[in-house]
Amino acid sequence: MAITPLLGRMILGTFGWKTVGGPPADCPKYVLVAAPHTSNWDFPFTVATFWKHRVKLHWVGKHTLFKPPFGGFFRALGGIAVDRRSSQNLVQQLAARFAEAEHLVVAVPVEGTRQRQEYWKSGFYHIALAAKVPVVLGSLDFQKKEAILGPAIHLTGDMKADMDRIRAFYADKVGKRPEWFGPVRLKDEENLGNGGAGDTPA
């Protein structure tokens, strides 16, 4: 499916949205942190934002989703099939995709579901480290009707310090259902504080 900046602008304009910031010009590959995720509207507005900026946005789905008759359509929309049966885990599979690609932007809904969660999934962090790509912080602020693309952060491996930077960005962001946006934190941070190795990436 061709990237259609006009269609992206039309979708956002119809609903009264504007964009703030934009994709990093010197960064062809990155993991997009998509939060808060509290509504079914998050996906179409995020895709429209990237269409407006002429960037194809990819997302991850279970491999069975990409079988006929709709597999081609989902791939055209940016879907990447991940096989949970593979000996490689999600982090390894996506790191390999990044290594093979010249340009690749993969959106990760870090909460994993629309309803409130006490912890973010840590997959985005481990994927970015393994692939040696930055994370770009994205947000849809439903109060201001702003589709925001924030800074590209090159993770250091110091999880607490990296997450503090991410927490600062999301401190004032408001999803469609604010009560469903939980704390910006990873279980790994607590496990590291207790001398553990962190949880399994998901």
Give me a quick take on this structure.
The chain is of the alpha/beta class and 202 residues long. The protein contains seven helices and seven strands, in the order H-E-E-H-E-H-E-H-E-H-E-E-H-H. The longest helix has 12 residues, at 159-170.
Lay out the secondary structure.
Elements (H helix, E strand, L loop, with lengths): L4 H10 L3 E4 L7 E6 L7 H11 L6 E4 L8 H6 L2 E4 L7 H11 L3 E6 L13 H9 L3 E7 L4 E8 L5 H12 L16 H7 L9
Parallel strand pairs: 1-7, 2-5, 2-6, 3-4
Antiparallel strand pairs: 6-7
Q: How many helical stretches?
A: 7
**Could you give the distance between the termini?**
29 Å
Q: Quick one: how many beta strands? A: 7
Shape: globular
Helix-strand string: HEEHEHEHEHEEHH
Describe this structure in words.
This protein has 202 residues and is α/β, with parallel strands linked by helices. The protein has one domain (5-193). Helix content is 33%, strand content 19%. It contains seven helices and seven strands, in the order αββαβαβαβαββαα. The chain has helices spanning 5-14, 42-52, 71-76, 90-100, 123-131, 159-170, 187-193, and strands at residues 18-21, 29-34, 59-62, 79-82, 104-109, 135-141, 146-153. The strands form two sheets. It has a five-stranded mixed β-sheet, sandwiched between helices. It has a two-stranded parallel ribbon with strand order 3-4. β3 (59-62), α3 and β4 (79-82) form a beta-alpha-beta unit. α4 packs parallel to α5. The longest helix has 12 residues, at 159-170. The radius of gyration is 16 Å and the shape is globular. The two termini are 29 Å apart. 30% of the residues are buried. The mean pLDDT is 85.
